[in-house]
Amino acid sequence: LEGQLRHIQRIEAIGQLAGGIAHDFNNLLTPIFCYADMIKRGLPQETPQAQMAESILKTAHKAKGLTQKLLSFGRRQRLNMQPLDLNEAIQSFHDILRCTIRENIAIRMNLAPGTAPVMADRGQIEQMLLNLAVNAQDAIKGNGTITINTGHVLLDDEYARLHPGMQPGPHILLAFADNGHGMDDETLSHIFEPFFTTKQVGHGTGLGLATVFGTVKQHEGYVAVESRVGKGTTFTIYLPAKAQTVSASAPEPKGNGSHPE
Ligand code: ADP
After folding, report:
1. Sign, Cα dihedral of 177, 182, 188, 192
2. Radius of gyration of the chain from Cα atoms?
3. Ligand 1: distance of its center to the CA of 26 in Å?
4. Where on the tree of life does the source sit, at the highest rank (predicted)?
5. Under the phi-then-psi rule, with left for phi > 0, alpha for psi from -120 to 50, and beta for the rest, what region is 182?
6. Probe ligand 1: pick from 209, 211, 227, max atoms within 8 Å of CB?
7. Would you give the distance in Å from CA 34 to the centre of its chain?
8. Number of other CB atoms surrounding residue 182 within 10 Å
9. Which of 70, 95, 190, 251 has its CA 20 to 30 A from that of 206?
10. d(Cα 102, Cα 204) in Å, to the nearest integer?
11. CA atoms within 13 A on the CB side of 12
12. CB of 210 closer than 6 A to ligand 1?
């Protein structure tokens, strides 16, 4: 248990560090954008110098994309939290997933009816689905299946105590599964660390799951992963079903035996 806690703290520390660097780096990009743009405007369009200025702008844009990813798990990005019907969010993202993922990979969805809304940033939830989907695709050779399930679950105090970082209470869960190559324990123990990748140079940045981890943390949720080599991988994301408590306008439960720790 202590090991797990240390592990989470370590990922968070790396995330904070990377987020801090990204923040300062992002600020440094501003004059680069500004001056490259001024240089470009001051030159006739077809000159090689104007094209070089254009290259600077394009590269700076790429750098901005990267810092954006880093910021998202360094908790320095502002979130637009709204009550969100997770089923609806997943359903309306289906088309984008479908045209991103290879045709020989089926996408199945089993969305539990009547799930309570969660407080979430729709953009970040979509980004999370995309990251998980691209990883699933990379893990599948040839034909395969991605399965997205939702459900609701009440996490009790004891269960939460056994899973550091998990809060007890009603949760909506999102299980994202693939039948790809899976992971061994050694790989599993590093996947949420920024820049950890087993992919070839140019194919992975190692930021996808660190971002997922950061997103889930920012939503006060919990992410669990199960994987078997040669069988596949399932990421289960628990998001607190907060909105229900808000809209039900029920009085705060008292003396429910919760204890500090
Ligand atoms: P990247 O995809 O750029 O490598 P990620 O942080 O998204 O970075 O993933 C880190 C590593 O975790 C991957 O390189 C891969 O080894 C492993 N991984 C992630 N998702 C899966 C999956 N669905 N199946 C098997 N391995 C996975």
Report:
1. negative
2. 21
3. 26
4. Bacteria
5. left
6. 209
7. 31
8. 18
9. 95
10. 17
11. 10
12. yes
Q: Pick from 139, 80, 86, 84: which is nearest to 110 by CA?
A: 86
Q: Give the mutation target among 129, 191, 226 for probing the ligand 1 site: most ligand atoms within 8 A of CB.
A: 191
Q: What is the pLDDT of residues 205-223, one digit of tens each?
A: 788 898 899 889 889 999 9
Q: What is the pLDDT of residues 108-161, one digit of tens each?
A: 999 999 889 999 999 889 989 989 999 999 999 999 999 999 999 999 999 888
Across the strands, what pairs with 153? 171
Structure tokens at 94: 């289906």
As a dihedral over the C-alpha atoms of residue 119, residue 154, residue 159, residue 167, rounded to 10 degrees, the angle is: 20
- Our mutation pick for probing the ligand 1 site, out of 141, 193, 197, 213, counting the most ligand atoms within 8 A of Cβ, is 197
What CA–CA distance (Å, rounded) separates 237 from 85? 15
Quick check: 18 pLDDT over 60?
yes
Nearest residue CA, atom 11 of ligand 1? 197
Please determine, for residue 248, whether its predicted confidence score (pLDDT) is greater than 90: no
Q: Do 81 and 121 form a contact (C-beta atoms < 8 A)?
A: yes
Q: What is the ipTM of this complex?
A: 0.99
